[in-house]
Design goal:
By secondary structure, the chain is α+β, with helices and mostly antiparallel strands. It has a domain of 58 residues: first zn-finger domain of poly(adp-ribose) polymerase-1. Helix content is 16%, strand content 20%. It contains two helices and four strands, in the order βββαβα. The strands form two sheets. It has a two-stranded antiparallel sheet with strand order 1-2. The radius of gyration is 18 Å and the shape is elongated. The two termini are 25 Å apart. 7% of the residues are buried. The structure holds zinc ion.
Length: 101
Amino acid sequence: MPMKRKSRGRSKGGKGRGSLVQCSQCGSLVPQDKAKKIFRRTTLIEPVLARELRQKGAYIPSNVSVRYYCISCAVHRGVVKVRAKGERKQRWRHGRRPRPR
Ligand SMILES: [Zn+2]
């Protein structure tokens, strides 16, 4: 059967039902292997002030928050992009573009 994507849009492989996560933007429940996981560093200090303090050698603590996005919200926010038909089956390594063949 022809498939639109090699992974069927998920990363679960042959395993059965997995856990669900809630989308951080719209609140819909999506499978964890299908959702896009985004790490964001958050600080309580404003970025302009933080830059000044960092120049003076201060340590600025930050928290790492994890956000999950459903596919439609991830596309809307620019986390993932719509790819051309030939490009769809290429696998992405973290943060890198696939090598042209
Ligand atoms: Zn969503």
